[in-house]
């Protein structure tokens, strides 16, 4: 392919990849406004974020077989159409329950874009170019949380929270049109792929029985669930506890995202010198100490805006080392079922994240303590899983 075709494909796939992060992060600055408009609390609005994570978790398991059986474009376009309709529904939502349900449907639609974009890299580019393309797409995923909340804060200030979902609907429509008219279909559909529950479940059970998978997939999911607690809890912590403006919240969120992006790039250098197992253990140990200090500070009411930002930045830095390595270690035993293992790992991560973020809605306290407690608790559980898993793996190897 020529340079123009190469650039256009990267642009479309990057836009598809950005749909999920923008859908998660763009409406965060509007939480207090949504809560006031729907006669509820900011903590309750966070349930709509949990429902989005649940939708993504289910979609991870759904779209893999569909993309293999029917080709890439049909499930992708149907998913994008579902996303557009759900986004339109969010514009006209008048109750919190409506918003919660519509966000779950919206997530199911956006998940098609995420899964299809990964699959189509393998279809559309030579093997030698795949790593470079994936790196570009991961950069999009990393930069999106920096741009989305800042854009969302300005949209909310200028036009109100409904306009955020109009913008997301427009983004979905652009992706749908680009996918229909400019995205080629190179994959040959395989009608032999079964969509029956029994064989799919059997494959997933064989994956989860692998010690490397359950050790590192569960460790990674628990450690990463602290990020979901941060995303769900940060609107309350920054805008209601520390009284920052909607605009300033967007900028704080963007700055904190730099920690995750930077550490993940440093990790790519560290893995050349150190084993992934060692990096995970050191980073998770550091994250545990950080979150325990964070919890003590919140419990003793010692937190202010600046040390909260600093501790969150260091926490996200730890995740930048943990997540890539636990993902690689989880998938390392698989060749034949790598796709199913990847889908199951993503579903577990999003499912655990949904639980972590939903826990915050139980506590209607205007403080950082619920968010920090979930972050510390999930990190401690991740460490316990890692220690027991490593013990199991050492016995297996011996």
TrEMBL record:
CDD domains: MFS_MdfA_MDR_like (cd17320)
InterPro entries, per the entry: Efflux_drug-R_Bcr/CmlA, MFS, MFS_dom, MFS_trans_sf
UniProt keyword annotations, A-Z: Cell membrane, Membrane, Transmembrane, Transmembrane helix, Transport
GO CC annotation terms, alphabetical: plasma membrane
Membrane topology: Multi-pass membrane protein
NCBIfam families, alphabetized: efflux_Bcr_CflA
Protein name (record): Bcr/CflA family drug resistance efflux transporter
């Amino acid at each position: 392919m020529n340079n123009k075709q190469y650039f256009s494909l990267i642009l479309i796939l990057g836009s598809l990849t950005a749909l999920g992060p923008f859908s998660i992060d763009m409406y965060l600055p509007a939480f207090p406004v949504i809560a006031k408009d729907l006669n509820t609390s900011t903590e309750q609005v966070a349930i709509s974020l949990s429902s989005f994570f649940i939708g993504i978790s289910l979609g991870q398991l759904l779209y893999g077989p569909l993309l293999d059986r029917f080709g890439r474009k049909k499930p992708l376009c149907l998913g994008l159409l579902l996303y557009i309709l759900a986004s339109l529904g969010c514009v006209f939502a008048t109750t919190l329950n409506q918003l919660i349900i519509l966000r779950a449907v919206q997530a199911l639609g956006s998940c098609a874009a995420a899964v299809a974009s990964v699959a189509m890299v393998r279809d559309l580019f030579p093997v030698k170019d795949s790593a470079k393309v994936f790196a570009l797409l991961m950069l999009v995923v990393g930069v999106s949380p920096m741009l989305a909340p800042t854009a969302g804060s300005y949209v909310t200030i200028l036009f109100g929270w409904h306009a955020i979902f109009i913008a997301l609907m427009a983004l979905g429509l652009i992706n749908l049109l680009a996918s229909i008219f400019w995205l080629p279909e190179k994959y040959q559909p395989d009608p032999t792929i079964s969509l029956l529950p029994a064989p799919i479940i059997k494959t997933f059970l064989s994956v989860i029985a692998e010690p490397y998978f359950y050790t590192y997939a569960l460790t990674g999911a628990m450690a990463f669930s602290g990020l979901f607690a941060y995303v769900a809890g940060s609107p309350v912590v920054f805008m209601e506890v520390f009284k920052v403006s909607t605009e300033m919240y967007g900028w704080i969120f963007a700055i904190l995202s730099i920690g995750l992006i930077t550490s993940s790039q440093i990790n790519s250098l560290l893995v050349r010198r150190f084993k992934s197992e060692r990096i995970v253990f050191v980073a998770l140990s550091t994250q545990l100490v950080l979150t325990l200090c964070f919890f003590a500070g919140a419990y003793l009411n010692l937190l202010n805006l600046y040390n909260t930002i600093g501790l969150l930045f260091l926490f996200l830095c730890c995740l930048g080392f943990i997540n890539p390595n636990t993902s690689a270690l989880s998938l390392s035993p698989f060749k034949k079922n790598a796709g199913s293992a990847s889908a199951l790992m993503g579903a577990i991560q999003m499912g655990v994240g949904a639980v972590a973020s939903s826990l915050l809605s139980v506590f209607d306290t205007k403080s950082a303590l619920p968010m920090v407690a979930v972050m510390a608790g999930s990190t401690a559980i991740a460490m316990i899983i890692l220690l027991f898993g490593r013990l199991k793996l050492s016995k297996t190897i011996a």
